[in-house]
Amino acid sequence: MLEVRQLAVNYRGVRGLNPVSFAVEPGQLVGIIGPNGAGKSTLLKALLGLVPAGGVVNYCTCPLHQQLAKVAYIPQRSQIDWDYPITVWNVVMMAQIRQLGWFRRPNRATKETVETALKRVKMLNLHHRRIGELSGGQQQRVFLARALAQQADLFLFDEPFTGVDKKTEAVMLEVFAQLRSLGKILILSTHEWGQSLSQLDRLLLLNQSLIAEGSPQQVMTPENLHQAYGSYLGNSWHQKIETSFFC
User: Fold this and answer.
1) Phi and psi at residue 123, to the nearest 5°
2) Taking the model in full, what pTM does it have?
3) What is the C-alpha to C-alpha distance for residues 160 and 140, in angstroms, rounded to an integer?
4) Reduced to 3 states, what is the DSSP secondary structure of residue 125?
5) In percent, how much of the chain has pLDDT > 70?
């Protein structure tokens, strides 16, 4: 189980995230939603120790920062250098190099792991292409394959559905379901309000503080969303919520 207690972030005296506490059981897919600047990415980075934070983050009763080899993290696409001259195959192989070491040649088992990961995201046929030549959805699938090749137990995704096509979204949701069945923990941040939210086990509604937590139906209420987003949502948003979760 992942246990988070009173996790808070301060940037030189400016509060980036008020104390947040929650727990995630094995086999759960949890979404973090909230407006821009709510602290969604900050929360993911704080879990990994990438930003200064106070509080406790334990995985299987031990500090998570001591077990980062068990974590696969996919940042937002905007944080990745897509001009770097590397092929799809080598992007995924990087997950195995961490385990092999830089000076050992990949063995047959390693190559099979990379090939299987690319097959699962339907990208094996483009393994020779440079990452910068792919579409946004294809790039996201490659980085999902790298996470799979890492053979992690905890997966963190920052805005994985942003700018992707319907095929990629369907592939990702299928892989997420497979990982859940294996008892993996998956946490993703998102600002998408489509049907993909209904696939999540739980939601954390965030705006600097944790406003609501529970199933999508419990969290996506007009009252909670008004508290998180303010009055500008309007009736069209309320209708979209009802269509997505209550019909």
Assistant:
1) -130, 10
2) 0.88
3) 7
4) helix
5) 89
